[in-house]
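To the team - 6-O-phosphono-alpha-D-glucopyranose complex, inputs and output below.
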Amino acid sequence: MCGIVGFTSRNRPAIGPLVNGLRRLEYRGYDSAGVALESADGIKVYKQTGKVAELDSLLSRALPEGERGKYTLGIAHTRWATHGLPTVANAHPHIADEGRLALVHNGIIENYAALRAGLEKRGAKFLSQTDTEVVAHLVAAFDKGDFLTAVAEALKRVEGTYGIAAISARHPGEMVVARKGSPLVIGVGEDDIVVASDVSAIVAYTRQVIYLKDGDIARITPKGVDIHTLDNSPVTREVQEVDWDIGAIEKGGYEHFMLKEIFEQPDALANTIRGRLDPAGGTAFLSGLSLSPRELAAVRRVVIVGCGTSLHAGMVGKYLFEKLADIPTAPEQAAEFRYSNPIVGPDDWVMALSQSGETADTLAAVRESIRKGALVSGLCNVVGSTIAREAGRGVYLHAGPEISVASTKAFTAQVTALLMTALKLGRTRRLSFEDGDRLVKEISRLPELVGKVLEGNDAIAKVAEKYAKADDMFFIGRGMLHPVALEGALKIKEVAYVHAEGYQAAELKHGPIALLSEKTPVVALLADIPGKEKTLGNVQECRARLAPVVGVVTEGDEAAAAAVTDALVIPKTCAELSPIVTVVVLQLFAYHVARLRGCEIDQPRNLAKSVTVE
Ligand code: G6P
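Output:
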């Protein structure tokens, strides 16, 4: 979703870093972009619909190289439309105070209509349909000489969520930033300070970062960062070092980030697993949970909350927890959970799954669960993210930055982390050492197993070619492969714009089978888990309706391979790992179908990487 960049320097022009920062945030999803630059002559604003490249060419036309040196302070934004169409007028930065003030915002101002009516009565002229513009006018209205105080006073009147950055010609050399509910990180370099919605826009300049907390407001000048609460009490926030570098967020020779991230999975999973298996105890070490065996043994129910791909990983988790730890487990879509007045309490363990750690509904589910006294933990990839911090305990995925909007390596890392958690929980209960030991051995083979699946990339691409023109597809699986079927359907919807539905294999005949014909391929998940034979029966039902069936089958399973139209092979592994090896095939299948259909794979239309609005 919306991305914010701010830059100030003792000696360098801001334009380059601002535009590069926006490029790094493109993956979040957006539909327009803009920049505001400050110089001794005042503030200049440039906005454009479409891609950052178009904004860049607008800037090249408007500001010759020779002129750029005078702008060493600026703010920039990519907008994902919420209030108002993606037009130039609605793009950020928004201005107030007759062009002296410019502001960018990520989040939603819920009381904007009332605020706007009040401001209009007092003569403010609005140029856009956005909720953001009211904040710009409010700040201008409260500016009595101190910029930070003006922004703080404005934000006290605002209901909703925000990450903001503002500059004003009345306060040259200053940028004020603040956050509540939307992420904001400050990178502190030698001569430069970069602010951004996430560290990917910062690491090219510095790896020293400060994660602002909700309610923080900061005054930034080339000399340093001064952080306060909205009530103007100074606060200190630790400077942390980002543990990856720029290479991790570049394509490294791959055509798309999605393909790169699919191929990174053996390494990503090795990182998720590293140091967490305990062969001597047949269990796992998950120190971030900070839970004693006694506390683990006291858990009566697990609730897993998440959205999108993370929800699907949570649905696999249900099977893992129930199978290995005998604990009833309920995966819940985070928005539904938070508004359902959920029945959770001290006996329940609520696990929040989120790659970004910023998804608004998942965060709200965390807060509601904490309020109700449940044990809460996060399962996040982004270190220092809001969910990771607010949950207070959890397991980091260590999968490395995920740039492609369609989540791939985060899913397999989440399932792996859930599997290790289930193993640990199981070993405080009835899971024997022998079973634990078997799993420890199999989990340590995971990077190698996923590597084998990737060797089948060309074969998967060939099958994708056969079906790339289909308008509809079905994905079917049983048990822990059912959520994988949902994930396979989601991937192909997201990146290839093919209508697809995931079903429990047995459910197909209760309605959807009416849609089957030679034009509707069915992808059947046939890894060796209990129920496979029944799914093979469902395959026959599909083929009897002339639907071609692509089967994901275990190597050496001749019967399954013979039952389907096209077989895609996965290596032999235990049931608990089958969701992981199977999903990698589906990720590649979706990727190739999308490529053949000419889709914009890394930034699919209308989608956002990190959904910070409800
Ligand atoms: C968005 C993304 C999905 C992602 C979901 C949850 O919809 O497009 O790929 O699965 O948000 O994101 P999270 O960061 O919480 O895992």
